[in-house]
Design brief:
Alpha-Beta Plaits, rRNA (uridine-N3-)-methyltransferase activity, 3 domains, Rossmann fold, BirA Bifunctional Protein, domain 2, seven-stranded mixed β-sheet, EC 6.1.1.20
């Protein structure tokens, strides 16, 4: 591998590396050879480097690396810059500029899978790893500066000068003097994935007996048809689904009927707030007739009243409104109503479902639902529910064996006694129909547990005299987050291969983030809302998701002002931009904010202030 060292003073660090097998060292410094040789021990280190076959290059500007190397010699596997400094008494602003130029220059000479190692004195970097940590404005803000050039901080560890044979730090205030390296940190940066290009995407799906296409909502462009549950997938959500299915199959026969479930429903989802639904317009000329929709999977498509019967004459009067499925429950209810159901057999349905929601680390506009349905003898429903829970707990405990630091525990909470503060997932499930129990999973880090599922018994009209139907709806994405220690749902949808690389062959492990301490940027936006209209916050959050490519992590209401005399109402929100998996620089965040302001005015009928 080719290793580039920048800003060497006495070349003692380069000399310590030059003996490594399979490594070609290119050691450089900013000074001329004559000036560099004047540093104590430099001449000896330079001779050692040259004798070992290393290259030594002088007068190298770290902000113009491309100019110092021929095209065939520009790809380095690792770049080191130990204790960069502009010299003399340069302040933090000048040193940030130096780092910015350095990182942009590295982008032109670093191999695709290469690393950049930057050692800084304690406190300079401005990350939580610095102890004590400086105030942000008084640090070099290295992670934000690197993000501007497309790099993310992937690791950080102490810089132990005493373990480097013959190393002596020098250059304090541009003098041949040592400086304090106690508590120094080595920051390791890697390339970020490129920004996603959100061009309009058309999706084709089955609707009854007809194939139709529609334009995917902007916020879902990078999430539609990702195939996380397909046979060849190693994604954690598939692993968990397969393990749970295998565990359940030991108690009863199991039938997986997930492959025939359409993405679209038609009509009006009864009981569900319309602002939580992704409404769809079919491509021109493709809206099927009610008769066509009624064929084949009619019940699965038209049972969008969640258990309510639809009279045939009423069907004809329903406007052709289409929406992405918010739940798999209507498909299960359709099976029950049609009698296409085997008592004593687990029916498993799984697939992505889509719900508009406000922005938070655990609120997902799309997630993978696993719906388990069982018909049992009347009077045995409680024992069936307990059997389901025990089975899942046994499966999760077996998964836990390979995940250190996570010890899951499952608990059932009566729906009537569940706290008033419901998660978005639990609150939406309430809209779908009556719930008997919430299924909560706790870990060592969060013993109180998070709601990952709900358990229902079928509505009265779906019950027979002898049988009762029990269903358990699970949010596989939330389960994956809890079991693998993933703090942000967006990481499950990353395009960075380093995520799935941590789960080889479907093995569950404790996730280690490859983007540490990502910078965040706060911007405020205020606007007048139309007179007499209620502002739709869910629409605002959904718009922010789409415009930013899920780069917004928080939207908080800062002020609600009513103008005396006119009664006009103004709202002010603080929008926080932050990425969990790729580089986001301050300039890009500012551009996203400007774009968001334009879209708010155009789509939400507000007047910007």
């Amino acid at each position: 591998r080719r290793v580039l060292l920048l800003g060497e003073g006495n070349f003692s660090f380069a000399a310590a590396l030059c003996g490594a097998q399979g490594t070609h060292v290119v050691a450089t410094c900013y000074e001329s050879e004559e000036e560099a040789a004047g540093h104590g021990g430099a001449a000896r280190s330079i001779r050692r480097l040259r004798d070992s076959g290393a290259e030594v290059v002088f007068s190298v500007d770290c902000t113009k690396l491309k100019e110092h190397f021929l095209p065939g010699e520009r790809e380095f596997d690792r770049i080191y810059f130990n204790f960069p400094h502009c010299g003399r008494k340069a302040g933090v602003a000048k040193n940030r500029q130096l780092l910015a130029g350095f990182f942009h220059s590295c982008a032109e000479v670093l191999a695709q899978q290469g690393e950049i190692h930057v050692a800084l004195c304690n406190g300079q970097g401005g990350t939580p790893a610095d102890q004590p940590r400086r105030e942000w404005h008084n640090s070099w803000q290295i992670v934000a500066v690197a993000a501007g050039a497309g790099f993310i901080l992937s690791d950080i560890h102490p810089f132990k000068a005493e373990n480097i044979d013959g190393y002596k730090c020098t250059g304090y205030r541009s003098q041949d003097k040592s400086f304090c390296v106690e508590g120094a940190l080595n920051h390791i940066f890697t390339r970020s994935t490129a920004p996603l290009c959100f061009t309009p995407v058309s999706c084709q799906t089955q609707l009854g007996s007809q194939k139709v296409s529609f334009q995917v909502p902007q916020v879902l462009v990078d999430k539609i048809n990702r195939g996380f549950l397909e046979v060849n997938s190693t994604h954690p959500v598939r692993t968990i689904k397969e393990k749970l299915s295998a565990g359940l199959s030991q108690a009863f026969p199991l039938q997986d009927i997930s492959s025939c479930l359409p993405l679209l429903h038609q009509g009006h989802p009864g009981g569900v707030c319309h602002s939580n639904i992704f409404w769809i317009t079919l491509s021109p000329g493709e809206a099927p007739s009610t008769e066509k929709v009624s064929q084949g999977l009619a019940e699965a498509v038209l049972c969008s009243h969640f258990g309510q019967d639809i009279d045939e004459n009423v069907q004809e009067a329903i406007p052709k409104q289409f929406y992405l499925r918010p739940s798999l429950l209507p498909h299960a209810q359709a099976l029950i109503k049609n009698g296409a159901f085997s008592p004593g057999t687990f029916q498993v349905l799984s697939g992505p479902v889509f719900r508009k929601c406000q922005i938070s680390p655990h609120s997902m506009p799309v997630f993978h639902e696993m719906l388990v349905v069982l018909a049992a003898s009347r009077g045995t429903e409680n024992s069936c529910i307990q059997m389901l829970v025990d089975n899942m707990e046994t499966t999760m405990n077996s998964l836990h064996q390979g995940i250190s630091g996570i010890k899951p525990s499952i608990s059932l909470q009566e729906a009537t006694s569940f706290g008033a503060e419901l998660s978005d997932f639990a609150a939406f499930e309430w809209q779908l129909g009556e719930i008997q129990h919430f299924l909560c999973v706790g870990t060592e880090a969060d013993p109180s547990g998070s709601c990952v599922g709900v358990i229902r018994t079928a509505p009265e009209e779906l019950k027979s005299c002898e049988l009762v139907v029990v269903s358990a709806s699970l949010n596989l994405d939330l389960l994956a987050m809890l079991l693998c220690g993933i703090s942000d749902w967006r990481m499950l949808w990353t395009w960075d291969r380093r995520f799935l690389g941590q789960f080889p062959e479907g093995e569950l492990r404790l996730f280690k983030s490859f983007s540490l301490y990502p910078p965040s940027y706060e911007h405020d936006v205020s606007f007048w809302v139309p007179d007499g209209e209620e502002f739709d916050e869910v629409a605002f959050h959904t718009l922010a998701r789409g415009v930013s490519g899920e780069m917004v992590v928080s939207i908080q209401l800062r002020d609600n002002f009513q103008q005396p005399g006119t009664g006009r109402r103004s709202l002010c929100y603080r929008v926080t931009f932050q990425s969990c998996d790729r580089a986001l620089g301050c300039q890009e965040a500012a551009e996203l904010q400007l774009h968001l302001r334009e879209e708010i005015q155009q789509h939400l009928s507000v007047t910007l202030r």
